[in-house]
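Notes continue from the previous slide.

Worked example: a multi-chain complex. Inputs as given:
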Amino acid sequence: MTRPGRDDAPDRLYTITGGRTSTGPDDPFDLVTLVVAESDPVPGMQSEHAAILRMTRFPTAVVEISAELRLPVSITKVLLCDLLAAGRVSARHPRTAAVYDPDILEQVLVGLRNL
Amino acid sequence: MDSAISEARTPLGAQADNGLKIVVVGGFGVGKTTLVRSVSEIRPLNTEETMTQAGEHVDDLTGVRGKTATTVAFDFGRITLDARNVLYLFGAPGQERFWFLWDRLFSGTLGAVVLVDTRRIDDSWYAIDRLEHHGTPFIVACNDFGGPRYSHDEVRQALDLDPRVPLVDCDARSRESCKQVLITLVEHLKNQYTGQAARSALPPQELV
């Protein structure tokens, strides 16, 4: 299996994002932010944007989108920022306080024990 | 091919709204992907992150000899815990360049499992050192490769492991065994934060 982005010409990644290589310091997306489509793809839309909208009819993590598009995480985030700014997707960010939240940790334990 | 992958995807429930992370760190061939596969509800997927000079507002390339870009590949699986919580399990290589991306990829992670092959115990030192540096809570799991058995005391000594860090044996091919590893980690996290909360609730002691 080829790895996403690895053997691609840099030109391809450049074209996909219009030259942007990262989303900047206020990047809202975590690897496990769950993305949900708020609209269907429309004709003429960039193919990667359309693919993301099809993929996120159910909540889908940023890292899953990256793996399926075979694009590096940072490039995927650029595409997601476009869609978020256009209101075409919504983002469910992880509750970062969960790390210290005994209730969440208890929920994780219950979930794991039920596996 | 791509459409076949899409059709094989198992979607999350519509209510899922909280992604959680646990990272499995270990050297090549130690069984990270095997562990992830054993407990994941999806076939493990693979992706990568690159760090380039264009991302210099967050990346410090000082000390990366002669490099202008670093790429790390990692794989991951998924466990739906309940209607809202979804746990993502990442298998991450422990090599040096990987740690430059730790904060970007794994900030906010619940904790880590250091997977150890007792035949190559030295491979784990660096990962443990880095996790301590990043303040990420972790446990150590020795994957059983059928080699000579070492006592936990011997392994702890070889790793110079803090006595409070749990050490368990596991078989990365066994779903039940891997499940126990994850439970041990989360129980450790609970104990740790309960302990911290109890300590911070105590009146500050005056130094005489």
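Summary box: The mean pLDDT of chain A is 86. The two ends of chain A are 29 Å apart (CA to CA).
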